[in-house]
Design brief:
six-stranded parallel β-sheet; 346 residues; 28% helix; 13 helices; alpha/beta; seven-stranded mixed β-sheet
Length: 346
């Protein structure tokens, strides 16, 4: 089979390798469509594996069952499946409390072979946990790849209860920021304000329900947000980018009693200076967000493949797997919102 193999930072080569063998009580999925995630790009452009190469990434996987162990009754050859990357054990204290996003014994999707390949293994453990979803007939497979990035956005906004009439600030107009804008509008937000430093991305974000855009290199975002919200600040502020400066600024964009979410992770070891007096006297709630629980994963999957979600707006580029490096550059430059790759194409 062909696979996009990482040999080191920024060294991704599409090569022929041996197809994996069907695991006991598991299956082999023929990958038909896979999203190119920002975390994939970060991993493939840094020494993410600490020198342990070669490695294959890719975790927004949709495909068709190609082989199956005789003792795997849930699925059959020809079934089309979406694979959520992090299978939760559903037995630990965190899972049982409804917070499977904090599972103490999750499957390690980074360590195993990813989906930037013609075929990928789906283990019995993944099947018996909460990671495998069968696609209905006549569903666009590219749309289904959005289920994974949408799941964390869905979970975040459900957790902080973005609701009818809210004013919402989103910092960062990358793919995740655009997901947040669209989701906020679906949930009834009255006003969505996008803050970003790239004019091209700000322009693209308007199609996802953004009411106002602010280039924070050209004007003071805090002053502009105050002006747009009758000098109050926003009900909810989501910092969806890897900037510590954005996190430090975000608290001043929220109204008294508002909610601020640190959604995007900053580089490891980075410390953020926060005005805790301001947080204290303005009764701000600060949340860190990562992942989604099992039910939120399922709900996001159902939304992504439904007519209520405009998936086609997000998928700006569809490329064969051999063009993965082009997809990386399109995403990094801001020209692409979401790149979807098609393995098994010559």
């Amino acid at each position: 089979m062909q696979a996009a193999i990482m040999y080191g930072p920024n060294d991704i080569r599409v090569e022929d390798i041996e197809k994996p063998k069907c695991p006991t009580n598991g299956l082999i999925l023929k990958v038909l469509s896979i999203g190119l995630c920002g975390s994939d790009i970060r991993n493939m452009t840094t020494d993410s594996c600490k020198g342990k190469y070669p490695h294959i990434f890719g975790h927004e996987i949709v495909g068709i069952v190609d082989e199956i162990d005789i003792n795997t009754p849930k699925y059959k050859v020809g079934d089309k499946l979406y694979i959520y990357p992090e299978d939760h054990c559903l037995k630990c204290d965190e899972c049982r409390a409804g917070h499977s996003e904090n599972c103490l014994n999750p499957g390690d999707y980074i360590a195993r072979q990813g989906g930037f390949a013609d075929f990928v293994v789906v283990t019995n453990e993944q099947i018996n946990r909460d990671a495998v979803f069968k696609l209905p007939e006549n569903i666009n497979l590219d749309n289904a790849t959005l289920s994974e990035p949408l799941s964390s956005v869905y979970a975040c906004q459900e957790n902080i209860n973005i609701t009818l009439g809210d004013s919402v600030v989103i910092i960062g107009a990358g793919p995740i920021g655009c997901f947040h804008a669209q989701m906020a509008k679906i949930r009834g937000a009255k006003c969505v304000i996008m803050v970003e430093i790239n004019d091209k991305r700000l322009e693209m974000a308007k199609q996802f329900g953004v009411d106002y855009t602010i280039n924070s290199l050209k004007e003071d975002p805090i002053a502009k947000i105050k002006k747009l919200t009758n000098n109050k600040g926003a009900d909810k502020v989501i910092s969806a980018n890897p900037s510590s400066n954005a996190q430090a600024q975000s608290i001043f964009m929220a109204k008294a009693g508002g909610i601020v979410v640190f959604f995007g992770g900053v580089p490891k070891g980075t410390l953020v200076s926060l005005d805790t007096n301001y947080i204290h006297y303005n009764n701000l709630w600060i949340y860190g967000h990562f992942g989604a629980n099992s039910m939120q994963v399922q709900k996001a999957f159902e939304l992504a493949i439904s007519k209520n979600f405009p998936a086609e707006k997000f998928i700006t580029h569809v490329l064969p797997l051999k063009d993965i490096n082009k997809g990386i550059e399109l995403t990094k430059s801001g020209e692409a919102i979401k790149v979807v790759l098609h393995p098994n194409l010559n």
